[in-house]
């Protein structure tokens, strides 16, 4: 029937408009999500960089503390070596003295 054709054309046009609006809305949603993703990645990168900088600061502080402690350990070990050497020299001197005065080891 010819009188239904304008109605069908109108419905078809409205459906096309709705589909176009839906597609435009989807495209807009995609742009919003892309923008959000980009902003999120930027923020995550910034936060990661801040965390790295904090880690490096902690590493540097720890390294400085370890350096101080290693220097102290080195001084203590040098002192132990010197004291050990002095003790060995004293032992040799006492051994020499004991031998020179004729004291046997069992007599001590």
Automatic annotation (TrEMBL):
BP GO terms, sorted: synaptonemal complex assembly
Give the GO cellular component terms, alphabetically.
Answer: central element
* Entry superkingdom: Eukaryota
Report the PANTHER family cross-referenced here.
SYNAPTONEMAL COMPLEX CENTRAL ELEMENT PROTEIN 2 (PTHR28398)
Q: What is this protein called?
A: Synaptonemal complex central element protein 2
**Species name for this entry?**
Tetraodon nigroviridis (Spotted green pufferfish)
Top-down, what is the taxonomic lineage of the species of origin?
Answer: Eukaryota, Metazoa, Chordata, Craniata, Vertebrata
